[in-house]
Amino acid sequence: MTHDLPPGFRLGEHRFEPGERLLTGPQGACRLSPRAALVLARLARRPGEVVSRDDLEGGEGAAHTATGVSHSIAELRRALGDRSHAPRFIETVPGRGYRLLVEPSVADAPAEAAPGSLSPAPTRFAALVSALKRGGVAETGFAYIVFGWLAIQVADATFEPLRVPLWFNTYLTVLIIAGLPVALVLAALVEMSRARRAGRRPGPARAFVDRTVIAVGGALCLSAGGVYLYDQAFGLPGETEPAQARLATPTPIEPNSIAVLKFLNIDGSPAADVFANGLAEDVMSRLAAVPSLRVSARGDAYSLPANASSESVRERLRVRFYLEGSVQLSDRLLRVIIHLIDSETGFRVFSRSFSRDRSGLFGIQDEITRLTVANLRVVLPPDTQAAPGIYGEHPDIDAYVLYRHGMDVLHQPLSRATVREAVGWFRRSLALDPEFAAAHAGICMAYAQGFDVTAESGWIELAERACATAIDRNPHLDVVHAALGHLYAETGRDAQAEASFRQALEINANNVQALGGLADVYYRTRRLDEAEAAYRRAIGLQPGSAETYNALGWFLYQNGRYEEAADEFRRVLSLEPNNAQGYSNLGTALVLSGDFADAEPALLAAIRIEPRRDTYSNLGLLYYYLGEVDAAVAAQEKAAALAPNDHLAWANLGDALSLTPRHAETRAAFRKAEALADRKLAVNPMDAGTLIDLAWIKAMLGKQGEARGAIARARELTPSDPYVHFVGALISLRGGERRAAYADLHAAIEMGYPPRLLLAEPHLEPLRNEPEFAALTRDVRAARDSGT
Which pTM does this prediction carry? Predict the structure, then answer.
């Protein structure tokens, strides 16, 4: 039934004023965006009816409608305190639209002033307005308000389709508001200046234009600087802040923990900068070999500038102590100054300066380590000693600087370009010192890790040659054995990988990279308790490392422990608030735990920071479950464009397209995914995740026999993974084997697969009305119907 709505109406305990776009409820008042207010008004005119997305948007086109309406509905749910999986106000009807579940009622009219209650205030106000009009200030103020309103409307209509970062909308709104009083003051100053220049005043029209341009332009410039400074000091308000505040969980500070900050380069030359970074990282590695000492990871420590404040070090890295220093490098001499600082008090524990011949670098590294440990006796066991000589080689100093160049590149996000650049630096290092084993290990690591990103099969052979040479040159380096372990892991040789990682840990028990690799091997060989213990030990060794928390979160995620995984990803964000991968992983965990309301802002935050294939894929998955088919396809198309050689990007695109009439495109996407997955499995046939993906790809291409074979192999490799049983159920259902499908669905739920996702999965539509499926999802349905 269509309603004629009054100027204001109620939805339960909420009151909505359409003209003001003001929604007031138990949580307070908020002003809706124009698009969200329009969607709510259109739903309120047809309560209880399913209103299509096109009707809600006003017929602006499918591609625009899918994204615009989805964001508007998400905004309304946040404002109403509603949840998509247990709606009290707005229900999503997959594939059809949305329904308002609450009948609107007429709101009470605002109270009117009693007759005779007027005070002299209006008279004074009218006099003030008259004076402002005479000076032209009111005209400028009115022009500014009109300009600001138009700017906000244009931004609201264009920023989202253009994918302008969300924070810019908030910045513009605050800028417009802050600029109004500045514009009025500037307009008054302009008029006062003109009054003093009698006889040279322009005509009224020109005076208005000149005054307005000066006042509005000056106000925006001055306010832009003021708002920026306020944002840096206190942060601007915004609708994403509450959601992002919920996403971070702080980590504790270990008393026996330390960080080594990036050393300051006094010379300013590029070579000295690389040298300073290398010196700090090598001291960091030596300290990591000290028993009972927890050392922050390189990437985390280097996220802070040299000479950072003790407060920022403590807040960001969660360590009790930190080393900072400076380096000056000349043709002959090396000067180093270091300070050990207590992050709690900001006081120096000790300071020391060194001035040596350039060849004395490695002696300085050892001395810095001994001095640091000697001054940390208060938090370390009395018998703790540094482990000197763990590297066992002193290369040519110039070869060392080139090697550090390669390591700096290898710490960047991996791609074909970064791998080739890193290998180039390592080869230049070896041209000066062919016996430098660490440089050979660097080449091995670059090609082995790069294969995981690029699937360049030829790189594996190059990695094997480099690792063999490194072992031949120096079999006593932990970095050599760690690189060899990663090479074995990438090629499915888990037994050899485990042996290599153990060898690295025998040389340096605190090598976190080797420990993480060993934990991955434990997971792949189904020693889950040992894997979890290794991941948690890595966190203990580097309490300020976002990477270690991310690794543990991913392990929990792969074992169906989605809510626990989300907690670890929140810790990632407490350490690195702008970590795109952390937001993406958190959003993914929230999707699979069924928390769609918090998943969307997490995924959108990840895209705003850094658009990535996995983030767009997971955002598409969210829209897929919500029934927003066009938005799901758009997100998956972006994922495939960002990673054209990633089989999963094409498989996810095929899944989204399968819900549309675009059958030829669907098949083409799955064929592309099949070829890429086959190429990856040719190098590592033990990759269970890729086998699961390939099984589903084969099923969607109608190759049922091959699909069954692939899922059977995956099940042997990872029998406790809930996802392998879920995909097995989908494959059985496509083959008409309902009993097998139900058996796998029961197994998936027992191992942690969220039952609420079964309700959202379009491929399970044939089972919707069957009693056994209803029994599988009974608890979820009951919770949804009760609104809990």
Answer: 0.50
